[in-house]
């Protein structure tokens, strides 16, 4: 079992000396070793002191998730939190925080001397127009918990909300460790805690078990999920929404090539509930254009009594839903435009794209292509050249390896003779990486009940050719 513990007093003195040396050198991403309290083997810790959201938007997520400043023993798996000075900066919320672990035992003047270079580094990275008064008054947090609470508070998460979440985590642990015959009783006693956030916690555990293919955990989760969905008010609502959502998806798929404005309108007017209607809108927003709403208005005018009222209410709901979708798309495009602008400021395009990797999606590429067209239209060849470099770099970074392309080509062929011929034509790509990829694919697909047996058979045929 993995255990996360506080740093022991025995190794803090040694660690503090190493840390001070690294900090004085300006090495704000340091690495240190410390003995494992359990098995006494050396643990290596990657230490990060500066969390500057201006330079690294993902820094907050790493800090809050506990992914940083943790030493892991390679021998027994023991984990120990590493107490290090921290500077946290969120320019959007004008939040500038510092934390210095009291267990390092350094006087205030030494703490300020160590924190000073980190604070200066954060301030110097900002362009002049972003340097504001809050930077002159970094707030000192007395404890690590206070630091985290302050960050969460800026996001609108209060101490009461944190305590409520802790209660839900405790309930989830209790359910996971209780005998199956006690689950219903526990849920009945604690139903007031079972809401959207509790289901989010449960889903995280479930998704983790699915990804790791942990059948034992999945077996424990199944009766808990059934009880939550069938025995709680919120659970029954979740179940009903899920069923409506699935029905909407299935109805769209069943229409196939017959999906048009008229058939979509029939689905909309016969929607059993709002979840069904919301799913249809999300799936077929592009089809809900001016002509679609004209047809809907015509149906309303032709209807009488209750049908007229029902169709009118559906139109209002659709107008609200499409408006929300359009607003969300617009906001997404604005965010991607900000990412594009930040990347354009950088000299190293590849490093900048890696920094904003999570934002590199279809919306981002739409922005890039639009900006490229505008630059060429305006005759700004310097700008268009840099934008073209962004596109070329994204293509290079997302392009599958030659081995993956070969496998995709082989799997697209249905005739074994064609597969064999293409295989022998590309012998140079049949390397250890290609063979390992085949073995891994077969292993993964064999564990998946939904896997297509024909695809598995094709991969096995290709694997035989490598022997």
UniProtKB/TrEMBL annotation:
Keywords: Coiled coil. The keyword Coiled coil applies. InterPro entries: CpXC_dom. Residues 35-162 form the CpXC domain. It comes from the Bacteria. The lineage of its organism: Bacteria, Bacillati, Chloroflexota, Anaerolineae, Anaerolineales. The keyword Coiled coil applies. This is CpXC protein. It comes from Flexilinea flocculi. Residues 311-338 form a coiled coil. It holds the Pfam family CpXC.
């Amino acid at each position: 079992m993995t255990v996360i513990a506080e740093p022991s007093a025995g190794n803090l003195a040694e660690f503090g000396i190493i840390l001070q040396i690294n900090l004085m050198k300006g090495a704000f991403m340091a690495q240190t070793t410390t003995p494992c309290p359990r098995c006494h083997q050396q643990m290596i810790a990657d230490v990060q002191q500066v969390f500057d959201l201006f330079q690294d938007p993902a820094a907050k997520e790493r800090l809050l998730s506990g992914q940083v400043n943790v030493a892991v023993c390679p021998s027994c798996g023991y984990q120990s939190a590493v107490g290090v000075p921290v500077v946290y900066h969120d320019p959007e919320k004008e939040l500038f925080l510092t934390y210095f672990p009291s267990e390092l035992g350094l006087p205030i003047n030494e703490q300020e001397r160590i924190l000073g270079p980190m604070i200066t580094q954060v301030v110097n990275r900002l362009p002049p127009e972003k340097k504001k008064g809050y930077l002159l008054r970094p707030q000192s947090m007395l404890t690590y918990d206070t630091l985290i609470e302050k960050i969460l508070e800026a996001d609108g998460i209060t101490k009461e909300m944190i305590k409520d979440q802790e209660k839900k985590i405790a309930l989830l642990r209790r359910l996971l460790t209780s005998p199956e015959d006690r689950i219903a009783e526990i849920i009945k006693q604690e139903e007031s805690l079972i809401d959207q956030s509790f289901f989010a916690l449960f889903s995280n555990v479930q998704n983790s078990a699915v990804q790791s293919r942990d059948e034992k955990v999945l077996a424990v989760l199944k009766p808990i999920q059934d009880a939550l969905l069938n025995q709680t008010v919120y659970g029954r609502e979740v179940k009903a929404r899920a069923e409506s959502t699935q029905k909407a998806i299935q109805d769209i798929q069943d229409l196939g090539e017959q999906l048009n404005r008229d058939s979509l309108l029939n689905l909309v007017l016969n929607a059993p509930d709002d979840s069904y209607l919301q799913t249809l809108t999300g799936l077929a927003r592009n089809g809900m254009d001016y002509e679609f709403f004209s047809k809907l208005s015509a149906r309303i005018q032709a209807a009488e009594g209750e049908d007229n009222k029902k169709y009118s209410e559906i139109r209002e709901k659709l107008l609200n839903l499409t408006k929300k979708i359009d607003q969300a798309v617009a906001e997404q495009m604005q965010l991607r435009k900000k990412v594009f602008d930040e990347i354009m400021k950088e000299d190293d395009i590849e490093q900048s794209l890696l920094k904003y990797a999570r934002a590199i999606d279809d919306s981002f590429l739409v922005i890039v292509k639009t900006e490229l067209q505008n630059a060429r239209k305006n005759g700004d060849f310097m700008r268009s050249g840099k934008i073209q470099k962004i596109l070329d770099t994204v293509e290079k970074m997302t392009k599958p390896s030659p081995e993956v392309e070969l496998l995709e080509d082989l799997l697209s062929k249905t005739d074994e003779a064609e597969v064999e011929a293409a295989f022998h034509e590309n012998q140079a790509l049949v390397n250890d990486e290609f063979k390992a990829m085949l073995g891994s694919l077969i292993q993964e697909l064999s564990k998946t009940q939904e896997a297509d047996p024909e695809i598995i058979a094709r991969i096995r045929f290709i694997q035989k050719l490598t022997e």
